[in-house]
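For this section, I looked closely at the sequence of one protein beside the tokens encoding its backbone, which the following lines show:
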Amino acid sequence: MRVRYTLRAQADLDAIFTYLDARAPVAAQAVKTFIERRIAMLAEFPRIAPETDQPGIYELTIVRYPYYVYYEISGDEIWIIHIRDARRRPWSDESP
């Protein structure tokens, strides 16, 4: 399967990486690599994460770091739709 990003998800990822780079550039690279590897793993194991309350939307936990990756499976593609900091309010509680 192919992993693709929505514009929102790419912006989320860019914001996370910018934030980390500004605070701890050396450590930020390890976090970035870990997040990217977890997302890339979805190509081989698309149903590794549990489905959310929203049908067809899955929530991948980035285990060592406080991030969730929300995605959906469409045919032979996995669409990353949102990446968020787990320390914030749940996604469903936010306005779009």
